[in-house]
Amino acid sequence: MASAPDHLFALRNSFYLGAYQAAINLSTSLNNLSEEDSIEKDSLVFRSYVAIGAPELVIGEIDSSKPTALQAVKLLALYLHRPENKETVITSLKEWLSDAAIGSNPVLRLIAGVVYMHEQDYNEALKHTHSGGTMELHALNVQIFLKMHRSDYAEKQLKIMQQIDEDHTLTQLANAWLNLAVGGSKIQEALLIFQDFSEKFQMTALILNGKAVCNMHMGHFDEAEHLLLDALNMDAKDPETLANLIVCSLHLGRPSSRYLSQLKLSHPAHMLVKRISSAEENFERAVQTVA
């Protein structure tokens, strides 16, 4: 019979790899945890509810009596799902981070990093995440540096993670992200990591997207499309699946308008939507100028 630490380990991995409902289900088996582990469990469960699009449950259940880590998750739910509250959330984050009593909380710093990364304010994100402290913070640093096109700094963060635990799921994920950014012969290494995940863990849209992006880099767009359609069956609103299907369809010479419409409806602030909208506006202006 699996012990509580085994269940918490499985819950973490499920969350890291995007098996959010599985993480929620696993949490029901976790009892008699230490206070620290209990807070971590609740944090991952509430973040899973945010990820599956149930922010109201998170916002409703986390009141002012809850620990700082959970209050931070509530801010994330408000930020991602109530756009009218973005400025309020950022103001609250700044106040909490400057509070000596709670400002160093790792989950609060992690949420701050995620929010500022969404804001594309990478320097502000790193201000709160760069010191690390948890594997999630190190992994987020890798993501931020890759967003900044600084694979050299991302590699330094990965080496820190490898020194802590080379086999950790987040270390392997970060390694795959870096390999994809570097490209070339590293793409095959990234594919092997995602393949290993698919053999060890429950298949998720995150794993399928990882394998698909590797195949797209290698020019195998038919295989990538097959993987992405499987991912779409798992989650019809997943933004990365829809974005990757748009790109894949264009390479295959197939219509992508349906996927773009879905992405615009479910994730209007997605980077690809913004880029396409900007390109369409520029085209319209050019047409009017010529006319």
UniProtKB/TrEMBL annotation:
InterPro entries to which the protein is assigned, alphabetical: Coatomer_esu (IPR006822), TPR-like_helical_dom_sf (IPR011990)
Superkingdom of the organism of origin: Eukaryota
One Gene Ontology CC term in the entry: COPI vesicle coat
Keyword Transport found: yes
Membrane topology: Peripheral membrane protein
Location(s) in or outside the cell: Cytoplasmic vesicle, COPI-coated vesicle membrane; Golgi apparatus membrane
Cell inner membrane as UniProt keyword: no
Major subcellular site: membrane
UniProt GO BP: endoplasmic reticulum to Golgi vesicle-mediated transport; intra-Golgi vesicle-mediated transport; protein transport; retrograde vesicle-mediated transport, Golgi to endoplasmic reticulum
UniProt xrefs under Pfam families: Coatomer_E
Stretches of the chain forming a coiled coil according to its record: none
Molecular function as annotated in GO: structural molecule activity
Keywords: Cytoplasm, Cytoplasmic vesicle, ER-Golgi transport, Golgi apparatus, Membrane, Protein transport, Transport
Summary of the function given for this chain in its UniProt record: The coatomer is a cytosolic protein complex that binds to dilysine motifs and reversibly associates with Golgi non-clathrin-coated vesicles, which further mediate biosynthetic protein transport from the ER, via the Golgi up to the trans Golgi network. The coatomer complex is required for budding from Golgi membranes, and is essential for the retrograde Golgi-to-ER transport of dilysine-tagged proteins.
Quaternary structure, from the entry: Oligomeric complex that consists of at least the alpha, beta, beta', gamma, delta, epsilon and zeta subunits.
Protein family membership: Belongs to the COPE family.
UniProt protein name: Coatomer subunit epsilon
